[in-house]
Amino acid sequence: MIPPVSLFLLVLLLAWAVSLPLMPAAVTSPLPWPIYLQGLWLSGALAIACFSAAMLLALRWPVLSRPLGGLDRAYRIHRRLALWGSGLAWLHYGLRLTVKSARRAGLIVKPEGFPSQALDLFDAWHHSAKEWAEWALFIALGLVLLALWRRV
Which residues of 35-64 are buried (b: 16+ CB within 10 A; e: fewer)? Predict the structure, then answer.
């Protein structure tokens, strides 16, 4: 039997693979750029999905814990999802910083006329969202380290 966290991630990866043809601008660009974009989008989406599922399990709903095999098993799945979410969020952040440095050094060039693919509705919130996300990532790292510390 496939563990629940692995099954969850597998379903999300399959959904991402099915959605690839719907993103032609990201696929038809010169080669390093689409790999970067797909990695960035995939790591961000998987991190959000893992954190969301972990938060739902933190509610301790009997509707969710019973099919998973009880509250103890739901706690273990919650912990694994939080660890996966943290790791994927750090991958997302690290990928963004690495490519930003590579662009400054001239190793990667953003294609000319490449659409941003962001909704105009959220442009005003872009800067503050980046700032809050960075702080949230460091707080999540602290919480994960606290959860892994056996004495607490």
Answer: ebbeebbbbbbbbebbbebbeebeeeeeeb
CA of 133: how far to CAs of 9, 47, 79, 92, 129, in Å? Answer: 22, 12, 21, 11, 6
Token pair of 63 as six digits = 């509707």
- What's the CA gap between 96 and 145, in Å, rounded? 23
Band (pLDDT 50/70/90 cuts) for residue 49 is: very high
Q: Report the alpha-carbon distance of residue 149 to residue 144 in Å, rounded.
A: 9
- The 10s digit of each residue's pLDDT in 95-116 is 989 988 988 998 888 777 666 6
Q: What is the pTM of this model?
A: 0.79
